[in-house]
Write a structure and sequence with these properties.
about 325 residues; alpha+beta; 2 domains; 6-stranded antiparallel beta sheet; 10 helices; 6 strands; elongated
Length: about 325
């Protein structure tokens, strides 16, 4: 029992250490920014809350992976070793984002549009949906802007506009799209940090991880219950994947399997959201269910992992294997 009760404390220590590491890494990246435009480069303390907000999701999930190593060595009681880290990780993610959003300071200067707009993605800005084919400097090309559009439902007041080319200006967390004939303003906050946008290695994976921040922001602004479900779905499937830490006698191999499942869960969520829901179910009006369909899918997979854990693999399997060696 004692081994289980100490897990939340260890998790919080890991969460703080990983968060500080990622924040520091992000600051170093900002300080090393050598772009010619001095107004958009470098680090300022006004960015710090936004940086913290960006690293909270990945720090909360990665901390769970490292807590699995502790559980592997000192399992404790199975029920509490599952429940206590699950609750702690959920609280760190849920209340961490709520808390930091209360103190985020807007960055009142022009910022690169790559921090706000990603090509070949459906981007949601309140009641507007923007799809951009390509970006060149401060210009978007071959874009479609849906106005007064509720995602997953049809509204008679909605309309769309094809934009062959437009200049984009970003100030005070507002995107202004200027086509030359008219200007459309979109209210938005950046959820793409320098940590995720630098380099080309594993670009798709890092982009998917950064898009989780966008999803958390979108759900947080829309509905607190949906936001809680989204947070829980990610924490639950990762916590349930702890079963794979005991599939063999080699803990390092098991750990990489769990890391693979964690990354796969994030990629699966983005695939379901961007390629299944948006492309095949855009005409269905049940917006609540469809918005949460990727979350429910992750939780169903998590339940399957949990069933395998309880029925087929003993909780102290790895420990017994080593002791009987």
């Amino acid at each position: 029992m004692k081994q289980s009760l100490v897990l939340p404390v260890i998790y919080l220590l890991l969460f703080i250490i990983i968060s500080l590491f990622l924040v520091g890494l992000n600051i170093i990246i900002d300080l090393s920014d050598t772009t010619e435009n001095s107004e958009t480069s470098g680090f300022s303390f006004k960015k710090l809350p936004s940086i913290i907000r960006d690293v909270i999701p990945i720090a909360s999930l990665v901390s769970l992976l490292f807590i699995f190593l502790r559980i592997l060595k000192k399992p404790g009681i199975q029920f509490f070793s599952f429940l206590l880290p699950l609750i702690t990780a959920f609280c760190a993610l849920f209340f961490g984002i709520i808390g930091i959003n209360m103190v985020v300071i807007p960055i009142d200067k022009e910022i690169s549009i790559e921090n706000y707009i990603k090509p070949d993605k459906f981007l949601i800005f309140n009641n507007n949906i923007l799809y951009v084919n390509s970006i060149s400097e401060s210009t978007i090309n071959n874009a479609i802007l849906f106005n007064n559009a509720e995602l997953f439902s049809n509204t008679e007041s909605s309309s769309y506009q094809f934009i062959e080319q437009a200049r984009v200006y970003i100030t005070d967390n507002t995107i202004d799209i200027n086509t030359g004939n008219s200007t459309t303003s979109l209210n938005v906050k950046s959820y793409y940090s320098g940590f995720y946008s630098t380099g080309e290695t594993m670009e798709y994976v890092l982009s998917s991880i950064s898009l989780i921040n966008v999803e958390l922001n979108d759900f947080y602004n829309r509905n607190i219950m949906e936001f809680a479900i989204l947070c829980f779905s990610f924490v639950f499937i990762i916590m349930a994947s702890n079963v794979f830490m005991r599939i063999s006698r080699w803990p390092l191999f098991n750990f990489f399997v769990v890391v693979f499942i964690t990354v796969g869960s994030i990629l699966l969520y983005n695939f379901l959201k961007n390629h299944i829901v948006l492309e095949f179910f855009s005409d269905i009006s049940d917006s609540f269910f469809l918005r949460l369909l990727p979350c429910f899918s992750l939780m169903i997979i998590g339940v399957i992992f949990l069933f395998i854990d309880i029925i087929f693999i003993p909780f102290d399997f790895w420990k017994k294997e080593i002791e009987n060696e």
